[in-house]
Amino acid sequence: MDENFFGHECVGHSGDTAVSNADLRFVPAMNMGVAVASNNGSAESVYMIAPFALALLMGKDPMKEIPIFEVERKMGMLAGEYESYKGIAKISVVRKGGILFLESKEKLSEQSLALIPESDRLESLKFYMLAGGMRMPAEFVADSPGKIDLYIERNRFHKVK
User: What pTM, to 2 d.p., does this model score?
Assistant: First the structure.
């Protein structure tokens, strides 16, 4: 139950099996609800569709007013391929299970580190990684939608795709 879904109580229930899933949401004060079911085995998509659809029915813009959609948008924007000056070093930022990972593949080593956000809703694009037991800061700077830089310690990586 979400006690404050755009100022209203919202009750619901969800569940899944290995191959199907469903989510039901209802706002009693507005006598309005949504039921979503799927047989594709991807519970994450169903659990995002129901609040999105209910927000639309309530006249809200879910992309702007439901935090998870803004977080998803930002994560999608940050994912991609990055290179240092003249392509000397290359890294990838990939999404796995709702988390961003920094991956690098060198001739002799391969590394995958979780990028842990410093703020729940990604208000800042500051993250950290745990490398060798040490906390290592990583910060994305988005000057425009197509121009994103990633700073890790003294290294600057430009998003190339």
Answer: 0.72
